Amino acid sequence: MTDHLTANDIVHMNERCIRAYGGTFTPPENLSDEEVLNKVVEEAAAEQLQKPASKAAFYFHAIITRKAFLDANESTALLASRTFILLNGGSFHKKLKVVAQNEQQIPENAAGNQQIWLRLVAQTSSGALSLENLEEWFSRNTTVPKI
């Protein structure tokens, strides 16, 4: 059985990110649109996304692109996707890698774990990476038990 993140989990992650890295947290939940967050949580739990890597990629992509929070959507997406993998008994490879898909490098111009994460965030935020791109990247950079 897969454990999913709740809206409350993600709100707490957003608050933690702002406290750790700076930004503005507007009480009580820093949401720009509560319905957007609820929809993200609902869609992540849906049967269409069966693989944990696909679900993690979905959290990452949806939180960044749908902007449910007033601040720190990117760092919240990173924390949520990583937490989801760990919550379900998985792990990220010690050395993350750039992945080739249809002659595109995911992410582009990145070397080393920190730069790979930063580029994934920036390129997703700019619209350069699709959910499909992220699903491929997460599937090749994580090890998760079969559900």
Describe this entry's structure for a reader.
- The protein contains six helices and four strands, in the order H-H-H-H-E-E-E-H-H-E.
- The chain starts with 6 loop residues before the first helix and ends with a strand.
- Helix 3 packs across helix 6.
- It is globular.
- It has one domain: Fic/DOC protein, Fido domain (Four Helix Bundle (Hemerythrin (Met), subunit A)), CATH 1.20.120.1870.
- The strands form two sheets. The protein has a two-stranded antiparallel ribbon with strand order 1-4. A two-stranded antiparallel sheet has the order 2-3.
- It has 147 residues and is mainly alpha-helical.
- It is 55% helix and 7% strand.
- InterPro entries: Doc, Type_II_TA_Toxin.
- This is Fido domain-containing protein.
- GO terms for molecular function: kinase activity.
- It comes from Neolewinella aurantiaca.
Short recap of the structure:
By secondary structure, the chain is mainly alpha-helical. It is built from six helices and four strands. A two-stranded antiparallel ribbon has the order 1-4. Strands 2-3 form a two-stranded antiparallel sheet.
Give the tags:
mainly alpha, Four Helix Bundle (Hemerythrin (Met), subunit A), 7% strand, single chain, 147 residues, 6 helices
Side by side, the strands of the main sheet go 1-4
Distance between the termini: 6 Å
Largest sheet: 2 strands, antiparallel
Radius of gyration: 14 Å
How many strands in all?
A: 4
Please tell me what the overall shape is: globular
Approximately how much helix is present in the residues? 55-70%
